[in-house]
Design a protein that fits this description.
The complex is a heterodimer of chains A (about 130) and B (about 625).
Chain A lengths: L7 H30 L8 H51 L36
Chain B lengths: L18 H23 L10 H6 L1 H55 L8 H41 L3 H7 L6 H11 L2 H10 L2 H10 L1 H4 L7 H20 L8 H18 L8 E7 L8 E6 L7 E6 L9 H17 L5 E7 L10 H6 L4 H19 L6 E7 L1 H11 L6 E5 L17 E5 L29 E3 L30 H10 L8 E2 L6 H9 L3 H34 L2 H32 L12
Parallel strand pairs in B: 3-4, 3-5, 5-6, 6-7, 7-8
Antiparallel strand pairs in B: 1-2, 2-4, 8-9
Chain lengths: ~130, ~625
């Protein structure tokens, strides 16, 4: 049977990339919204055309920012679920081991990725030196 | 026959290009371009030949493409809006006020003529004919203006409609300029004159693409015209700030917080000219430069067109986060220059090197006793000056002003052939080892040096100076009058007076600032000149000031923290008080906040120094020059 393992540090670095870009593009969306609302000063002919142009790219920025944030959240959740599942599996595993040999399954220190906002309790197997 | 008046054509409104439209959309384009680039780094390689379904499903690759479409559409749209903006700003808007006045005059004349139309005498006929001729001429001007405006509108409308759907944006990615290739070429040029010629040869789309995709390069490349530098740097700064502010304060990293402080320092600097009708330009914005201290430069007035240009180079403790005070000195020079009739003066605050950090205390004097940072500053400054010359159509009168450690950087640049007319060194610890006389600096050299400023007493033969004292008569510079300050003195309880003499050369209303401003506007012959010092006066000055040093040796462990921390803080607070008296309350509060923060840091530094001294039982006197 073929199985899959997850490189958690990589997964969390990817979540951070998506999260940062969500912030960046969201900020761009706000700028474009402001530009759109100021377009009327460009004159009766140019104003409406510029407004439509900015509206298109403002909406697109909003969509990209939203999608990026969803990706970041999903990755964070997957990482979280993966670790939680491991804890459960660890207990099962310990139950199957000879009494007194449970220390073969050791608990490891986990660190959240700096700056990643969701979920707050995101565990991360990165050591500080490995953080992106 | 009834007389008739030719109708006056209605003058259309002049369109306005708001800040949110141009600056805001540029900042958006820069931010999206950054994200597109990040996604592209994590995307599938361009010539990947594996499973199409895997490629199509890869989200970072897909996002890179989608963002690329947005960026292409924004680049093309902004380029078109920029052209439209140029037409309005340079042609239509300046004429609009004249046309409006003419329109009002003609309508007033029309009102006086209407009651006379029933008359049939020759005088009335003549007046009506004269008026109608003026109206026809005016109508012709309005019609030509209307045609010009419509032509500009047609171009921008067509350009915006061409990229106002997602599909059109995606298609535009194949037509946008090849930025990496353009950049490689630009980097190979090096000489600012060649860079200027290359930039002028680019079309608007290429320039806009470069400003959007690599603003950190375009904004800081010497030889790029100032308006383009300003646009690139402001877009870069806005995009960075927007992105950081998108995160909740608690989620910001240490780098985010440091960047915000630097941005605020620059924004406060730019804000100094608010309400004065003086245009400002962000000529340098490099928050990551100088090992994180940052580089920045602001121009008050346009240095490409001004007759007189000054550059202020700051010294010790200058960083991007306190660029507010750095730019304050340049702004004071700009205002004082105008007071002396310098109507065409542009004043630049330039922090393009890694100025030594720290407070004004003997440890810092020792810490800045090397010329390596000044040498680096000199190279960067010369290149910046070359960039200014390259972008000007006509020659300028250029004055480069160096304060404190910045004066050493300026003198070294001048000694190496920097292309400036006048050099002003104020509060100078020395003109650099290679410069023994003013003639080594290849310019007219002026020096402002308070006799009570301890930094100016560090010039040779002091062991911690940075070359010869330019205020000494043997150096041969024009030394100008500086107001008498507090007598500098050490006391057993710490030096209480005199350090403010080092920081007051640019104070509003001071004799020093007046003389600097006169030099800046080409009136160096009108300064209040005073005699230079004797070469031997500096060691004697330090000996005299160190009379209390023996007692200090005993008291040093107790008073060290006070001595190192308090004096500058006190002097700075004195400045803050003067600022309250002379400037607006809001600005004063900002200044006070900065000073208090500085004072707090200095006190902390002083405590560390005090503990260190107590630990090692080393008195502070070895740091003082001139002691036996």
């Amino acid at each position: 049977m073929k199985g899959f393992s997850v490189d958690l540090p990589l997964l969390h670095r990817a979540a951070k990339v998506w999260d940062d870009q969500a912030d960046n593009v969201k900020a761009a969306q706000k700028r474009l919204k402001a530009a759109s609302s100021q377009s009327s000063s460009l004159g009766d002919r140019v104003g409406p055309v510029a407004q439509e142009y900015f509206a298109t790219w403002q909406k697109e920025a909003g969509a990209r920012a939203g999608a990026a944030q969803t990706r970041a959240n999903d990755l964070a959740k997957i990482g979280h679920d993966y670790v939680v599942l491991d804890e459960e599996a660890a207990q099962d595993l310990q139950a199957s081991l000879p009494w007194g040999k449970g220390s073969a399954i050791r608990e490891a220190e986990v660190h959240p990725v700096e700056g990643l906002r969701t979920p707050k309790t995101l565990p991360d197997l990165l050591s500080p030196g490995q953080q992106p | 026959m009834t007389l008739s008046l030719t109708p006056i054509t209605r003058l259309p409104e002049c369109p306005e290009i708001g800040d949110d439209v141009m600056r805001g959309s540029r900042a958006a384009a820069v931010a999206m371009s950054e994200s597109a680039e990040v996604m592209q780094r994590h995307a599938a390689p361009p010539r990947w030949e594996g499973d199409e379904a895997v490629l199509a499903n890869h989200q970072m690759t897909a996002t890179a493409k989608r963002l690329g479409g947005s960026v292409a559409a924004l680049e093309l749209g902004i380029a078109a809006l920029d052209e439209y903006s140029d037409t309005i700003r340079t042609t239509l808007a300046p004429q609009h006020a004249d046309h409006q006045k003419k329109d009002e005059d003609l309508r007033a004349a029309e009102r006086t003529l209407v009651p006379l139309l029933t008359k049939d005498d020759d005088e009335t006929k003549r007046k009506v004919a004269e008026h109608n001729a003026k109206v026809e001429e005016h109508n012709g001007v309005v019609a030509r203006r209307e045609r010009r405006l419509r032509a500009a509108e047609d171009i921008v409308i067509a350009a915006l409609r061409k990229v106002d759907t997602i599909a059109e944006g995606a298609a535009a990615t194949s037509t946008v300029p090849n930025v990496p290739a353009l950049l490689r070429h630009a980097k190979s040029l090096k000489d600012p004159r060649k860079i200027f010629t290359w930039w002028k040869g680019l079309d608007r789309d290429q320039r806009e693409a470069l400003k959007t995709m690599v603003p950190e390069i375009v904004g800081n490349l010497n030889g790029i015209p100032i308006v383009d530098r300003d646009e690139a740097n402001r877009a870069h700064m806005s995009a960075l700030r927007d992105s950081i502010e998108q995160r909740e304060p608690g989620e910001r990293t240490a780098r985010d917080k440091a960047d915000l402080k630097k941005i605020r320092g620059v924004e406060k600097g730019l804000g100094k000219a608010d309400g004065y009708g003086v245009p400002t330009y962000l000529m340098v914005f490099e928050p990551r430069a100088a090992r994180g201290d940052g580089h920045a430069a602001i121009a008050f007035g346009n240095p490409e067109t001004a007759k007189d240009v000054t550059i202020n180079v700051p010294g010790l403790t200058s960083e991007m986060k306190n660029f507010d005070s750095v730019s304050g000195n340049a702004w004071n020079v700009a205002r004082a220059g105008r007071n002396f009739g310098g109507e065409s003066l542009a004043s630049i605050a330039w922090l393009g090197y890694d100025a030594p950090s720290g407070g004004l205390d003997p440890l810092d004097f020792a810490g800045v006793g090397r010329e390596d940072k000044a040498a680096e500053g000199a190279r960067n400054l010369s290149s910046f000056v070359d960039g200014l010359h390259a972008t000007r159509e006509h020659p300028m009168h250029l004055t480069v002003i160096g304060h404190s450690y910045g004066s050493t950087a300026v003198a070294k640049a001048a000694g190496d052939g920097m292309d400036a007319d006048d050099i002003v060194l104020v509060g100078s610890p020395g003109a650099g080892d290679g410069n023994t006389t003013a003639s080594d600096l290849h310019a007219n050299v002026y020096v402002g040096s308070s006799d009570q400023d301890p930094v100016t007493r560090l010039g040779n033969p002091s062991p911690v100076g940075l070359g010869g004292d330019p205020a000494s008569s043997g150096f041969g510079a024009h030394r100008f009058h500086v107001d008498d300050g507090h007598r500098f003195a050490w006391t057993p309880l710490g030096l209480k007076n005199g350090l403010d003499n080092h920081t007051s050369y640019f104070d509003k209303g001071s004799g020093s600032l007046d003389n600097i401003a006169k030099i800046g506007i080409g009136q160096g012959d009108k300064i209040h000149e005073v005699a230079g010092r004797s070469a031997a006066s500096n060691p004697a000055w330090w000996t005299e000031r160190n009379e209390g040093a023996l007692r200090d040796r005993v008291l040093a462990p107790i008073t060290a923290a006070h001595q190192y921390g308090d004096p500058y803080a006190r002097a700075a607070l004195d400045h803050g008080q003067r600022f309250v008296e002379h400037a607006g309350r809001e600005l004063a509060e900002q200044q006070r906040g900065m000073i208090e923060e500085h004072a707090r840091r200095l006190r902390q530094a002083g405590e560390v120094v005090g503990r260190e001294i107590q630990r090692s039982l080393t008195p502070r006197t070895p740091f003082l020059p001139g002691l036996p």
